[in-house]
Amino acid sequence: MSVVTHDDWSLDRRGQTAQARHREKIRQAIRENLADLVSDQGIILSDGRRTVRIPVPTLDEPHFRFDYNKQKHVGQGEGRPGQSIGRVGGAGQGTGAAGAGQGNGPGGSGAGDRPGETILEAEVSLEDIEDTLFADLRLPNLKDKPPVRQVTDGVDFTDVRPRGIQANIDRKRTFLQALRRSRLTGRPLVITKEDLRFKTWEETQQPGSGAVVLAMMDVSGSMGMTEKYMARTFFFWTEKFLRRQYQNVEIRYLVHHAEAYETTKEAFYTTRENGGTVCSTVFQLALDLVRREYPPDLWNIYPLYVGDGDNHPADNERAVKALEELCGVSSMTGYVEINPYNRVTALSRHVGSLPPAVFRWATAGHPRDMLRILRSFFRADAVASREGA
Fold first, then answer.
1. pTM, two decimal places
2. DSSP 3-state helix, strand, coil percentages of the chain (rounded to 5)?
3. Residue 215 CA to its chain's centroid (Å)
4. Beta strand pairing status for 359-364 and 198-207?
5. Crossing angle of the two packed helices 126-133 and 14-32, in degrees rounded to 10
6. I need a surface site. Which of 117, 189, 283, 336 has the fewest CB within 10 A?
7. Domains in the chain, ordered, with CATH?
């Protein structure tokens, strides 16, 4: 006589299941607070070398909770099939003073007498935020280009050997080797040290899709502290996105007031000058840089400009003409207008004629708008249009 037993293995996996639920709640909390995290001043000013805390609901397992305010409970009196045994949040749940039980829910009045949901704070790193923020972001219209300076280091697994490190064990070939030996010897299937097979690799160099981002920013007197911080927020996350998603993207930093010049990354994020605003100078500098170092047949070119929309009246036509030329040689040209007061600016009156297939334009009135702008600029399937106008 044989006895068939059944073990509930789910009990052994409760710890793993709880950990998976916790990780999912962390990801959900990041998604819900992503706009605030992107605009977090602590992250931007610390160059991302910190963690932040976000609220996460408690991880209680589903269970029945006893309701002391009901006259009858489960197991009392006669019951009928299909009878409802109670309702969550029913009327008359409070005790004591009138309305005392109404203060537990959102918008309730008075002091409540029921336990509330526990909200914990979880510490998340910059990498956790990047995983959520950059999951769907890509450089639009990115094309393969002939190799120039862009070469990627790759790894090709080319052989299988009986010696190696545990991280590179080939489970399939190890199992097949053990099965083959078991069949030949007529012994039970047991994996031994001699059955282990490991994958080995060779380092290779492969051409990549070369791309250059021309980061351009207005540093004239009209760019106040708020505008400067919002511009820095956009370029901070743009650079994080590029460094994480692509190995071969060059970034050149250009700034302007009445004149334009190239600068270093450190100076780009800290420079603030006085003077007038002549936007065409920085657009022309970008065009000269493209003609001199980045021919479009070898490079994917992405000019990105952030300013407050102000420009000298006599320069508007020259600026739009230079932007149109940039659109002609680039995969995507982006313009972020920092406009906290939602005013009609000099550039906003003239950029509407630029080709929508290449030119992407967005306005920002608050640092939280940067999440929307990043998604509208770096979604490969995004429709080129004016966002947030």
1. 0.65
2. 35, 20, 45
3. 20
4. unpaired
5. 70
6. 117
7. 13-60+120-133 (no CATH), 151-207 (no CATH), 211-387 (3.40.50.410)
Amino acid letter, 46: S
Q: Encode pLDDT of 289-335 as tens digits.
A: 999 999 998 899 999 999 998 899 999 999 999 999 999 999 999 99
**Burial category of 304 from C-beta neighbours within 10 Å (exposed 0-12, middle 13-18, buried 19 and up):** buried
DSSP 357-382: TTEEEEEESSTTHHHHHHHHHS-TTP
* C-beta separation of 209 from 142 below 8 A: yes
Which pLDDT value is given to residue 94?
Answer: 43
Q: Which amino acid is at 377?
A: F
Q: What is the pLDDT of residues 159-186, one digit of tens each?
A: 677 877 777 788 888 888 888 888 888 8
DSSP 8-51: -GGGGGHHHHHHHHHHHHHHHHHHHTHHHHHT-HHHHHTTT-SE
* CA end-to-end span of the chain: 79
Q: With pLDDT > 90 as the criterion, what percentage of the chain qualifies? A: 26
For tokens 């918008």, the residue is: 107
